[in-house]
Amino acid sequence: MSDFDYKSLFDNAGVAICLTDNRGNVLLANHTFDGLFTQYNVKNIIDIPEEGYKIPIMKVLETASEGHAGVPYPFSFWTEIGGGSRRKYEAYVSRQPGTDYFIITASDVTRRAEAYDELNRRNRELTCLIKIHQLTSSSINLDDITRTTIVESCKIFDFPVGFILMPDSTKLLRVVSYYSVKAIEEGTICHIEEILNTGRILQWARDKFKTIDVGERAIQEITEGERELLNLFEVSSVVAVPMVVKKEINGFIIFGRKDAVPLVFDQLSVLETLAHQIGISINNAMLFTASEQIKRRIVRQNEGLSLLHKIGLLFLQQTEFSDVLKEISKDIFRTTGFDGLTIIFRQGETINKHHFFDSRDTKDGFDCHGNITPSQFIEVIQETLSGKQMMFFEDINNAKGLNQQLMDSLKKCSIHSLFIAPIRLEGAFNGLFSLYTFDKKVSPSEEDISIFTSIYVLIESVLGNYEYKKMLELRKEELSRLSKKLISAQEEEKKRISKDVHDSLGQLAYSLNLSLSTLSKNPELQSSPIFKKAQEIIQQMQEDIRKISYDLRPPTLEEMGLVSALRWLVEHSQKEGTKIGLGVRLSSRIDFPYSVQVQIFRIAQEAIKNILKHSQATEANIFLYENSDSFYMEISDNGRGFLGDSSQSDGIGLISMKERAESIGGNLKIVSAQNEGTTILLEIKK
Amino acid sequence: MNKIRVMLVDDHTILREGLRLLLSKQENIRIIGEASKGEDALRMAKELSPDLIIMDISLPDINGISLTRMITQADPRIAVLVLTMYNEKEYLISALKAGALGYLIKEGTIEEMIKAINTVYRHQIYIDRKFPSSVVNEALLRMKDENADESDDILTPREKDVLSLIAEGKSNKEIAAILNLSAKTVDVHRSNIMRKMDVHDAVSLVKKAYQKGFIKIK
């Protein structure tokens, strides 16, 4: 009850009036009769001296409450007025319907009837106010509040017609609810709005809109300018009551009255209180609606954010593009009611299409029945969007600006609502993001649209990256494949040349050598310097052939395997000041194919070359060993090492070692620190 | 006088022809067969059972060393004289291990070859004179010892230092102080040693290190 403004109701009563609780405590009393109800607490002063005894107010109230609520129960009392004299009052009490509150009216004997009427009227008004109060405090539905309050207040005050008007976003007044005894014809409401918006009311409302003071009696009787209203509803006068909340008018209640007698002040007071009450309720309801909307928006935005987060994560985890889209589409369908998502994009000459459905399995996407190719689709959409960021068609059957061919195609697929946005790859319009429904309408909220926008922008950038990355990976794969091929082709070629040199040339040289050695028995030749020279040349030739051949193909590797070849390498790489050792711990023979062994050998050869050339090491070792998972070759030295800067060592050599390792499915690690030596570890998983 | 029945295994026709020509002038040598592939050589060795085979190492199908092993294991009476371009110790040792009695590098004179044929025919070893005697000694030593091929020491000197300190029960921190290294480096060494020894805890590591003789019990 505390926010209920009774006080102004009581202030202007012609008789003494107060409101008590059921224990006789005065809650409210009018100023005029302060002396009566507050100076003497009603709880103590009420007595009936003629009867010779005092009846406490409790007794009176008890009696009153036994009767029907709202029915005045008469009693009288005396009060001291000073100098030993007393005055008699005639009083009425009634319980407020539906409450534990009592209204007491009192007057001197001559105005007994007035007190009776006053009580009845207050009862009625209060009942209405309480009802409205109860309603407005229990409902947050704007329509309910406005409709019920206008109907109830018209009934109680016996007004044949009433409107609640509130300004819209353009500050023009709109009828939000009305009551009329007579049926209101179609168009009348608009007419009323027109009248009010061109007449004094609006002007007055605008003038007062920000400056109205609650203390000011802001009631306006309309008797002239809006005379048409009188004619429309066959009423004699119109009263406009502003709904003032926090010193601002947030609307009007306009009542049509049967008579044209000006309202008395306390009647206006009741109406004002009513309007205030309704204003507050409407305000609350609007706030609530707004807060609900905000809440919904926040929830939606949260959903959107978590969706974006999810998408981001999925992409980060390098999930397949189409799998990510499948996930996204599920969420979008669930939260927005769309049925399908299709993404078409052009990458060079290729058209990529991804579509996801949950309500129909159309397989080919939303252009399935059309005679329009995906490529044309992109063109048409580009034309349709003509630079817009996105477009939404609630109903494509009534869509303006849609290409006829496209519309026909969409109609054939039973597409109803359609959201489209461009996907720009490499700066050009290269695809589209679309969401759509089948045979049903959806209206995505602003938040939904903003989420879609974020999603397709994200997709756009990811797609750009993704496609770029994919291309890059393909190129890299291709390159690595070629490089592997090159590495193995090189070795094959070397092997072939080596065989040619070693086997053919070498054998020929040997045959020649043997023949010469036979001839050497001839004493003539024996003494011939030319013959001797020829023998020397043959020897030199054989030496050179061997050297070339060994460079091309590690000796012993093919016939005797890696360990032998490494032993040969170690023995032939000795250099003054650097001791090179070989340690092998393998449980079985290495059964890698020649093509793998040759790469391992080449890595060791390169590493040893580097050590001898750069490291200044006094000791170096090649270790071959294995454990249950892997085979290892470790080449370590105690040299000066290098700090990240591979130029100190042979940069190209390191790269080629790594390439060789990769080409045989191995992994090469190089660990080096200044003056801590260098360790090269090749690991080949078993 | 019995002629030495010789079979030639070499994939170079010119060489075979040359040898045939030169050897046929020797009264005690008769070429009874020629093969250019390992497969043919195996079959012919069985069919002809020659006294001696002159064997090349580089053959298109089976390498001459494997072929030597197969032939001498099947018929120890056949003497194999390897004749190859390779002057590498490893080939020599492998050939001897495989059962070859002679090893000639394709550089020498016909006289040396005839000498080699005669020696090997008597089931004595002949090694090309171009090999230094140290290599010949090593080869003769190692041909008998199957396991002395290479050291199975696969720890760097630094790792051995760390391992022996681990065996003494020193902590990473103590080892770091003794060796003037950072504790992190010691830790890296430790995990490298574990990987190399194929163990996963310190106890098995120390145990294995003793077994392999990396550290000695004091």
Describe the structure.
The complex is a heterodimer of chains A (686) and B (218). With 686 residues, chain A is an alpha+beta fold. Chain A is built from 19 helices and 20 strands. In chain A, strand 17 and strand 18 (630-637) form a beta hairpin. Chain B has two domains: 4-142, Rossmann fold (3-Layer(aba) Sandwich); 157-211, Arc Repressor Mutant, subunit A (Orthogonal Bundle), CATH 1.10.10.10. Chain B has ten helices and six strands; from the N terminus they run βαβαβαβαβαβααααα. Chain B has helices spanning 13-24, 38-48, 64-74, 89-98, 110-121, 133-142, 157-167, 172-179, 183-197, 202-211, and strands at 4-9, 29-35, 52-55, 79-84, 102-105, 126-127. In chain B, helix 4 links the parallel strand 4 and strand 5 (102-105). In chain B, 40% of the residues are buried. Chains A and B meet through helix 14, helix 16, helix 17, strand 16 and strand 17 of A and helix 1, helix 3, helix 4, helix 5 and helix 9 of B.
Question: Per DSSP, what share of the residues of chain A sits in E-state strands of 2 or more residues?
Answer: 15-25%
Taken together, the total number of domains of chain A comes to 5
Catalogue the unreliable spans of chain B.
none
Count every beta strand of chain B, where a strand is a DSSP E run of 2 or more residues.
Answer: 6
Q: Strand-residue fraction of chain B?
A: 5-15%
Low-confidence stretches of chain A: 47-54, 208-220, 645-649
Shape of chain B: elongated
CATH fold name of the largest domain in chain A, please? Beta-Lactamase
Largest interface in this structure: A-B, 49 and 43 residues
Structural class designation of chain B: alpha/beta
CATH architecture of the largest domain in chain B: 3-Layer(aba) Sandwich
Write down the Rg of chain A. Answer: 51 Å
Tell me the helix content of chain A: 40-55%
Mind telling me the C-alpha Rg of chain B?
26 Å
Terminal residue distance of chain A:
86 Å
